[in-house]
């Protein structure tokens, strides 16, 4: 296993191996490695595989760590960083409840457990709308898919900066001041 | 005291159990815990059973006994219902739960209403408990409901009289997991019940006439009061308010005229019946939504609104001194962009570009000055909407929708109700919306109620996406 953990990960760790080298050793010549979080690149590679004139086995390795596992690792790093008062950026994704029309197309493209549904807060709408719940680890795949598949403008990303630098704090205050004047 | 905590793997029940047992020990009690963990990461059910006694010589039960529990705590509403179905509830059992639940992928894809709601199962919960508190986390306005919120609610509920608030807080501190944040969440959860906010679902539409500006619109709305029943009136007032916010008073007047027109037509054909009321309520809702179509102006307006930033701050619990950046992802199609141009120009652009399907991919930092200014300027183009290409296109479709409802009345109120409901098929942005419009056009050719039921049933279920995927695969 290239990701260095198997099902019983805590009890049974396997040494890290290389799928690409293993396949090459088995005689596979057409091998591509893609980052599944880069949807555009992944789609391009899949199209390339479909259209390629190469006759033989074509393998695409989708190489990235499980989002939940990396989330667990990040949690540890975050608590260490915060205990030392280091700068930390916490990223979360969200869906605007008054922009989402409830067509659920984003869900049809995406199996993320955090991308779920909730009741529509607009009393005129009975349908459920998309909703990203608290378990979101901010991988950004939902917004990336929505962007690539031209679905809708409901997705947004919030970057919360903990222990910001003084320059960041200053810029934030200046921008907030201007925006407040524009809003009012 | 016998406590059962049904949950779904990955919700952190282990931590809640740890806190509960520690706080019980701090108060001199004897807790005993039995965990039946399921598969983690949201795929299996997990059960935790705790017995807390204040005497020394007690034999703990190795498993929860049906009907003999004192308390059921659940983070997942469906798990609570399953536990009740299995007979664990009872007349001596209190229930503390949330309306939050995990949906299966098929449920998420379906556009049908969720049937597992507190509103639908309130009687079942009441019949199987001494007292219950079911909290709607969305109404609490937080996106990350945690066990610490639940522990706070539990501590304030009085369902655990022998465990003090201070012991719970000490347990959170001693466990050492994100202590500061968990203590804040605990206090938040505690505060909700302290303020007697027993939040439930299904409150319905609450509208007030005085929110509508004075003048001709208010007079028209007052006239509606005598013509419609309470349910329709509430919907109409809410729709009028939203339409004034969307466009202006004249646009809301157009809405009232359209609703009145159908109402008079209905009265002439079938008279004032209960079915007529139901049909009017559905029609009024769908018509308002169709009239408030989401163009780029509307999206920009919502994205740059003051309420949105307030909501984001509340959802992610961002304090005033915190720094946060909001990034929005836009990809309007070229048709959505030229849709806001005056009709003649838009028509020309449509002839030139509609076949190419271009789109503008952009990421805007909404709370940076230029990003915000851009969106604010876009939202100020509202004055162009009434003369725009998109406005005329949408209004043609709305007229066709009204015609379809009128045509179906001849075939019976059931057909007309389905036709009114079918208008909600049109939704989404760009290509999805075009797909939905062509679906609705297909639907609007139907007037047989059985065929309409079959169409709506298929469309609102997850099966709609199976067809879409097949089409996409063919086109690829």
What's the structural blueprint in terms of helices and strands?
The complex is a heterodimer of chains A (184) and B (476).
Chain A: H1 19-25, E1 30-34, H2 39-51, E2 58-62, H3 67-83, E3 88-95, H4 105-109, E4 115-119, E5 128-132, H5 141-148, E6 155-162, H6 166-183
Chain B: E1 2-8, H1 13-26, E2 30-36, E3 45-53, E4 71-74, H2 77-85, E5 94-98, H3 105-109, H4 118-127, E6 131-135, H5 147-157, H6 165-175, H7 179-194, H8 216-227, H9 230-246, H10 249-269, H11 274-291, H12 296-303, H13 306-315, E7 323-330, H14 334-338, H15 343-353, E8 362-365, H16 369-379, H17 389-409, H18 413-422, H19 430-444, H20 449-460, H21 463-475
Parallel strand pairs in B: 1-4, 4-5, 5-6
Antiparallel strand pairs in B: 1-3, 2-3, 7-8
Helix pairs in contact in B: 1-6, 5-7, 6-7, 8-10, 9-10, 9-11, 10-11, 11-18, 12-16, 15-17, 17-18, 18-20
Q: Can you walk me through this structure?
A:
The complex is a heterodimer of chains A (184) and B (476). With 184 residues, chain A is of the alpha+beta class. Chain A folds into 2 domains: 1-64, no CATH class; 68-183, no CATH class. In chain A, 37% of the residues lie in helices and 20% in strands. Chain A has 6 helices and 6 strands. Chain A has helices at residues 19-25, 39-51, 67-83, 105-109, 141-148, 166-183; strands spanning 30-34, 58-62, 88-95, 115-119, 128-132, 155-162. In chain A, the strands form 3 sheets. A two-stranded parallel ribbon of chain A has the order 1-2. Chain B has 476 residues and is of the alpha/beta class. Chain B has 3 domains: 2-194, Pyruvate-ferredoxin oxidoreductase, PFOR, domain III (Pyruvate-ferredoxin Oxidoreductase, domain 3, 3-Layer(aba) Sandwich); 209-292 and 391-475, no CATH class; 296-387, no CATH class. In chain B, strand 2 (30-36) and strand 3 form a beta hairpin. In chain B, helix 5 (147-157) crosses helix 7. The longest helix of chain B has 21 residues, at 249-269. Chain B starts with a strand and ends with a helix.
């Amino acid at each position: 296993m290239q990701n260095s953990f198997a099902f019983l990960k805590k009890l049974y760790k396997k040494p890290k191996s290389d799928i690409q080298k293993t396949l090459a050793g088995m005689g596979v010549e057409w091998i591509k490695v893609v980052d599944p979080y880069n949807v555009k690149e992944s789609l391009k590679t899949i199209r390339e595989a479909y259209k390629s004139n190469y006759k033989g086995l074509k393998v695409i390795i989708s190489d990235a760590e499980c989002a939940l596992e990396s989330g667990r690792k990040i949690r540890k790093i975050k608590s260490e960083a915060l205990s030392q008062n280091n700068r930390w950026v916490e990223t979360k994704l969200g869906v605007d409840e008054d922009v989402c029309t409830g067509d659920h197309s984003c869900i049809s493209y995406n199996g993320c457990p955090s991308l779920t549904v909730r009741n529509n807060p607009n009393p005129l709408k009975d349908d459920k709308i998309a909703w990203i719940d608290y378990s979101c680890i901010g991988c950004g795949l939902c917004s990336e898919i929505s962007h690539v598949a031209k679905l809708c403008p409901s997705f947004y990303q919030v970057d919360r900066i903990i222990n910001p630098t003084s320059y960041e704090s200053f810029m934030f205050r200046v921008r907030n001041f201007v925006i407040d004047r524009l809003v009012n | 005291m016998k406590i059962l905590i049904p949950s779904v793997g990955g919700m952190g029940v282990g931590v809640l159990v740890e806190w509960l047992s520690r706080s019980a020990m701090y108060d001199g009690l004897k807790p005993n815990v039995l965990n039946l963990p399921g598969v983690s990461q949201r795929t299996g059910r997990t059960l935790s059973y705790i017995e807390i006694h204040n005497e020394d010589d007690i034999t703990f039960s190795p498993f929860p006994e049906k009907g003999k529990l004192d308390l059921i705590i659940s983070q997942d509403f469906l798990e609570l219902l399953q536990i009740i179905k299995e007979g664990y509830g009872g007349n001596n059992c209190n229930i503390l739960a949330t309306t939050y639940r995990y949906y299966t992928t098929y449920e998420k894809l379906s556009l049908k209403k969720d049937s597992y709601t507190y509103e639908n199962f309130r009687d079942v919960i009441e019949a199987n408990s001494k007292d219950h508190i079911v909290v709607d986390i969305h109404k609490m306005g937080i996106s990350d409901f945690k066990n610490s919120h639940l522990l706070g609610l539990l501590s304030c509920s009085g369902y655990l009289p022998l465990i003090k608030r201070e012991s719970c807080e000490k347990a959170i501190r001693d466990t050492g997991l994100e202590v500061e944040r968990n203590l804040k969440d605990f206090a938040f959860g505690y505060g909700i019940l302290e303020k007697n906010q027993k939040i439930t679902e299904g409150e319905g539409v609450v509208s007030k006439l005085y929110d509508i500006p004075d003048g001709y619109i208010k007079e028209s709305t007052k006239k509606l009061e005598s013509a419609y029943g309470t349910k329709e009136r509430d919907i109409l007032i809410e729709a009028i308010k939203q339409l004034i916010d969307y466009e202006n008073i004249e646009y809301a007047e157009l809405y009232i005229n359209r609703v009145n027109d159908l109402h008079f037509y209905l009265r002439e054909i079938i008279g004032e019946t209960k079915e007529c009321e139901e049909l009017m309520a559905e029609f009024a809702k769908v018509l308002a939504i169709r009239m408030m179509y989401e163009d780029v102006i509307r999206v920009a307006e919502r994205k740059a609104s003051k309420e949105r930033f307030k909501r984001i701050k509340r959802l992610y619990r961002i304090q005033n001194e915190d720094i946060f950046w909001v990034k929005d992802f836009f990809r309007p199609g070229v048709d959505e962009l030229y849709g806001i141009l005056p009709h003649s120009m838009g028509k020309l652009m449509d002839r030139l570009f509609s076949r190419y399907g271009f789109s503008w991919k952009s990421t805007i930092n909404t709370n940076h000055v230029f990003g915000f200014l851009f969106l604010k300027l876009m939202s100020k183009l509202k004055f162009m909407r009434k003369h725009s290409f998109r406005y005329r296109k949408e209004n043609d479709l709305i007229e066709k929708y009204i015609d379809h409802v009128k045509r179906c009345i001849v075939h019976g109120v059931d057909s007309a109700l389905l036709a009114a409901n079918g208008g909600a098929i049109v939704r989404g942005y760009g290509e999805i919306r075009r797909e939905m419009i062509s679906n609705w056009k297909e639907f609007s050719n139907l007037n047989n109620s059985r065929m309409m039921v079959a169409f709506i049933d298929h469309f609102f279920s997850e099966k709609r996406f199976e067809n879409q995927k097949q089409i996409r695969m063919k086109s690829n």
